[in-house]
Amino acid sequence: MAAITGEQREMNRMVDEYRRRRDLLVEGLNRIVGVHCHLPEGAFYAFADFSPFLAGNSVSLAERLLDTGVAVVPGAVFGSDGFLRISFCHPLKKIEQGLARIAQTLSSWRLD
pTM value? Predict the structure, then answer.
């Protein structure tokens, strides 16, 4: 009851922080030519369309990104091959680094 009726300052601070993280990730993904990401409304991850790069093989790209230190979940496990699920639970600096690694990986991506 105290969590619902009590002081909400800390909760509001965290909501604002996650909104900043979400916006940074989604805007950064949408700046990468060929990637499209809708703004999630109620989760701690984005589900982005990478299909122009994949020919339906999100697992291969997820593995390649993991080699660069970026962990994502391939959309294939959700029945949406061509998409990647990317968490924004990390600090802003880490999200920026991840976006840079994703952009770098896609710039050299070749279908196998």
Answer: 0.88
